[in-house]
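[Automated response] Your request has been received and processed.

Submitted sequence:
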Amino acid sequence: MKRKLFLMLALAAILTACGSGSASEGSLPNETAAASETTSDGLTIPLDSLSAQPLFIDWEQDGTPMQLIALLDGEQVRLAYNTCQSCAGSPYAYFEYKDGLLTCQNCGNQFGLDSVGEVVGGCNPLPVGESSVEGDCVVIPASELEANSSAFTNRRKFS
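Generated structure:
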């Protein structure tokens, strides 16, 4: 009950800070949650929800469940889709975070957070190609999300 109330209050605060629209809540595979907003323009993430720890944000793009890894590295925002570039196609081509490392649930390769959004190719999270900081929020355009939804077609549903 307390968690539900907290999430509702957090969501209300985020909608106030980033504008209005339909909102969805995301959840980490590690039991941590964050709120984000999806609109026809894209996905909006409040900057104050980001930290040095990875945040996993769920949403659906045209019926396909997707997930994003987002974090702050100093003042740099790091964004990547939570799908492994090499293992794509597997329902387990995603990363979980533990003890400072991201681990691919399909092949077991591990990576530090400094590779999030930086490394193209190989067994790494797929970098987000286009995003911007607008006011107090990070915005990923709908066209960017649509262009990468095919990487999630075989994925298990997030929860």
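Summary generated for your ticket: The chain has one domain: 2-152. Residues 101 and 112 are 5 Å apart (CA to CA).
If you did not submit this request, please reply to this message.
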